[in-house]
Amino acid sequence: MNGVQQALTGGIEGGTVILLPALGELVGERSGVVNLGVEGCMLAGALASYAVAATTGNAWLGVGGGMLAGAACGLFHSWLVVLRKADQLASGLVVWFLALGITSVFGNSFTNQPVTPLKVISIPGLSSIPWIGQVLFRHDGLVYAGYLLVAAVWVFLYRTRAGLTLRATGERPAVVAASGKKPELIQTLAVTFGAALAGAGADIVRCTCNEAEAAEALARIVPRSPVPIVADVHFHHELALAALEAGVACLRLNPGNLRKPHEIKMVAAEARDRGVPIRIGVNAGSLHPDLYRKHGGATPEAMVESALMELDYFREVGFEDVKISVKASSVPLMVASYRLLADTVDHPLHLGVTEAGPPPAGLIKATAGMATLLNEGIGDTIRYSLTADPVEEARAGRQLLEALGLRERRGLDLIACPSCGRAEIDVIKVAEEARAALEERGLPIQVAVMGCVVNGPGEAREADLGIAAGRHCGHLFIKGRIVRKVAEDRMVEALVEEAARLVAEGVEARLAAADAGAESEAEADRQALLGARGADANASEARVELVRRRLEGA
Question: Residues 102, 69: one domain?
Fold first, then answer.
């Protein structure tokens, strides 16, 4: 074996020590828990492995002992983070220093004891391949386990339902922006809130950069954020340059507030050199005074001209990595401005109704504007500007995109029938209880709550899962097919349990697990309800007859 082969062989053997914990950390990270104490787990595992191997004389028992010790550290970290809601960084440091202390105290007891190494195994046929055979196929079993685990982890994460469920737990993704926070709050909340925003569906977070302390805070936030950070700069070009130094993913500049051409071009040139995009954020309430005078106020023409003026400055320094917004608090003005802008430029557009206000009115205004444009094919990113928790903004954005079919569903979509004369339950109450319970699980599923079994399963046949009320019971159905009958007081509980199984196992598996007599029981309930109240449960035809008589007598 020559020097190159020896180096490669040693690299593979040494790299396996890093590869195995890295694969474990990959699985944990995909679930949303980052084990910053992984080095501590490695230390504890190394000590336990050496101690067990030295004591028993069996290297494979040592490997098992190391795995158990590492698992114990991981379990302790998970307990702190998931159940006790501890800070992940703090928990990771606790695990790391605890393991360091234990290994320092007890490690010397075993360092002088001999340990029989794992046996080298030559793979028949493969190990005799010229040159690479000696490098890849003459190792101990732990190295081969590493080979197999790389493939196994990939298959588990991306080709199994269990892996899909695990990734859905940890992945974050829709659009939100957070602005107006003081630096101290930005630094504290953006790191701790970042996961909450992303979990609610955020793809991007915007932070105001309005003073030097805010720019310094961005430098600490950016490397810790699970989503890209956009710096919102209004009046001072120095802060835009400082935000670029902090490593932000994008700048937002307001042309009405940052007006000096040489400062605008200086920022654009720096962004160009760093490969950082800029959003030209035009706002109807802060246009250049000359544009108000020229156009007689905030008009679509004035707002588009503001964006075009900024674009011209950018082009002078060869900068084209731009997206544009022309926001207004008036929905008709916002829609007209974006339509004109879409006909004028060929740049990505960021949609929003600015200062929409608190829900529900703010939600209605923002949805009216953005949904109109998105259905016309206008818009690339969105933001709800609500007087509410930013998590609510993210959740609303995600739900809008899912409702329009622009994003794959990753959260709950609950549908419910309006209450009618045939409803056997309080539909509103059950729907609210189901929504709260299912949203807590974060399941990517469409669920229907229907007041009765007469028409419910058929009307909601496209839903992934639903429940329809019968006589003092509920009938669970999947894609319109009845699968189970449950007690009335367990309707919500049964719905949540079945939703979790459906996401984990899939539609076909859950349909195959349907109770044998479920459909016949539902049909019996259906016929009983029809017999008791007839096909016209709301007595609408009787009312029609009364209306006719009233008109005839008039």
Answer: yes
Distance CA 268, CA 251 (A): 10
Q: What is the pLDDT of residues 334-392, one digit of tens each?
A: 999 999 999 999 999 999 998 877 888 888 899 999 999 999 999 988 888 887 777 77
How many domains, the chain? 3
Global pTM exceeds 0.85: no
132 and 266 housed in the same domain: no
CA distance 14 to 12: 6
- What is the pLDDT, as a whole number, of residue 44? 72
Whether 154 and 83 map to the same domain: the answer is yes
3-state secondary structure of 225: coil
Q: Are residues 272 and 369 in the same domain?
A: yes
Residue ranges of alpha helices (H) inside 31-87 are 38-56, 59-78
| Alpha helices, DSSP H, located in 171-299 | 183-199, 212-221, 237-246, 261-274, 289-295
Please tell me the total number of residues recorded for the chain in this structure: 554
Q: What tokens does 250 get?
A: 């994008």
- 500 in the same domain as 358: no
Q: 């790299």: which residue's tokens?
A: 15
CB 467 within 8 A of CB 483: no
pLDDT tens-digit readout, 33-55: 565 666 666 777 777 777 777 77
Residue 36 lies in a domain: yes
What is the DSSP secondary structure assignment for residue 357, as one 8-state letter? Answer: B
d(CA 122, CA 120): 7
Structural domain that includes position 394: 183-403
The position carrying tokens 């009364």 is 546
Same domain, 397 and 431: no
Q: Which of 351, 370, 403 delimits the end of a domain?
A: 403
pLDDT at position 349 is: 93
490 DSSP 8-state letter: G
Q: Is there a domain that residue 486 lies in?
A: yes
Alpha carbon of 511 to those of 446, 476, 508, 514: distances in Å?
Answer: 16, 11, 5, 5
Same domain membership, residue 191 and residue 161: no
- The CATH number for 455's domain is 3.30.413.10
Residue 549 lies in a domain: no
Same-domain check for residues 209 and 332 = yes
Q: What is the mean pLDDT of residues 56-82?
A: 71
What are phi and psi for residue 40, nearest 5 degrees? -65, -40
Distance CA 423, CA 484 (A): 19
Angstrom distance (rounded) from CA 537 to CA 520: 22
Closest by CA position to 179, among listed 288, 114, 254, 124: 254
C-alpha distances in Å from residue 167, one per residue of 172, 173, 286, 310: 9, 12, 43, 41
Residue (of 304, 306, 292) closest to 253 by Cα position = 306
Lookup result for tokens 């336990």: 48
Which CATH number goes with the domain that contains 371?
3.20.20.20
Q: Please indicate, yes or no, if residue 554 is contained in any of the structural domains.
A: no
Q: Which two tokens stand for residue 464?
A: 């992934």
pLDDT above 90 as % of the chain:
15
